[in-house]
Amino acid sequence: MKHYRKEIIINTPTRRAFINITPAVEEAVTESGITEGLVLVNSMHITASVFINDDERGLHHDFEQWLEKLAPEKPHSQYRHNGAEDNADAHLKRQIMGREVVVAITDGRLDFGPWEQIFYGEFDGKRPKRVLIKIIGE
Ligand code: ZN
After folding, report:
1. Among residues 120, 132, 130, 138, which one has the least CA distance to residue 19?
2. Phi/psi-derived region of residue 40, left when phi > 0, alpha when psi is between -120 and 50, beta in every other case
3. Distance from the alpha carbon of residue 130 to the mean position of ligand 1, in angstroms
4. Which terminus of the chain is more solvent-facing, meaning fewer CB atoms within 10 Å of its CB: N or C?
């Protein structure tokens, strides 16, 4: 069995953002030389998510509004976590949107269903954060 590991760095200019990282994952699959296997993609930070959904602007706006209703950023004082920090909402949003995805690799390509794309969801940005890509297979 072959294995391959890569980290990518994401630094968003805004506190919150959704970024399509599918091209970076495809690049890692190509670099790995693995044509049959699995790729794991996970955020290495507990205020950011990796998830699969549609690359559609309206949907991303809907996610933002839905998450903001579930865990509003402000007032910061509403959260116990916000003593020295102000990112309690980001921890909660990350928990809902998930830590990682696993995608099958078939014939050297990501074996997606229709419209599936991999996103990085940032909820406490404006600083460099890491995403881990781990690939196993043959
Ligand atoms: Zn925190």
Report:
1. 120
2. beta
3. 16
4. N
Residue 103 corresponds to which tokens in the numbers above?
């995608």
Sketch the domain layout of the chain as residue ranges.
2-55+94-137
Distance (angstroms) between ligand 1 centre and the Cα of 88 equals 6
pLDDT digit string, tens, across residues 68-116: 999 999 999 999 999 999 999 999 999 999 999 999 999 999 999 999 9
Give me the CATH topology for the region 2-55+94-137.
Answer: Jelly Rolls (2.60.120)
- Gap from CA of 127 to ligand 1 centroid (Å): 14
List CB contacts of 46: < 8 A, sequence separation 6 or more: 91, 94
